[in-house]
Amino acid sequence: MEKFLIVNNPNAGRRKAVKYKKNVIKFLLNQNAEFKSVGIDELSEVDFQEIKTVIAIGGDGTVNKIIPYIINTNKALAIIPCGTANLLAAKLGISTNIQKSLEVIKKNNIKTIDVIKVNEKFSILRAGFGYDSDIICKTPQSLKNKFGYFAYFLSGIIFALRLKRKKYTITADEKKISVLATCIIIANAGNMFKNLVSISNNCKLDDELLDVFILKVQNPIMYFIEFLMILLNKKFSGSKAMYFQAKELYIKNDFTTCHVDGEKQKFKGDIDIKVAPKSVKVFSN
Fold it and tell me: Residue 129 and residue 264: Cα distance in Å, rounded?
């Protein structure tokens, strides 16, 4: 019999995950399915050999912690989204409505997608440096608990007034780039603000390519104009911004803080970013 593993992040979605876990258990019992349930911090204790499907109850951070256990295996990931952003679920067409997300599992439509590897860290969405990292890493949890995804908008305004440029030396598929930038985004999934806009229509989960965006402007007003143009797919490259695709990216680095799928990471030494093509199976609507 197929065995399910429920992975619950009790702190996700203002503790919605606790309630949703009961819905998932009821759903699996009705399917006469064999399952076990663990907390997000108990993953290292699980024998994944007997697991066929992992059900993640949480947000993008919860999904990110599961990826190392299922990458390059036949195990499939189902998502019950109840985090702050839920970007991967939105990209896969999975509703935040618990009954609709359970229906996706019932349909059993599974696709295989790429994963980004940032040194030894896995990313299913994107990694961000500079301004993008500041917004994600420095927005207080208390603000996210109170305002949800809108908390990032508030932080975005504050950090835009403190924009700083940093020199980056990048090698993209053997082509060297030296640039002063305020923000660098390396994306697998480019959707933002749920699924309302994307940083590129070319950005696909299974194209085996990194989508790289570099913003160079320091003036807050010009920054927002440039970023808006990118989100509206009106502009990609120019004197104030760059966009390109690559299979591998190498960033010279002494020490930097960035985010990987919304989780703060500190890197000492150079950063190697590459695609692990079609390496994770996910349920999709």
Answer: 10
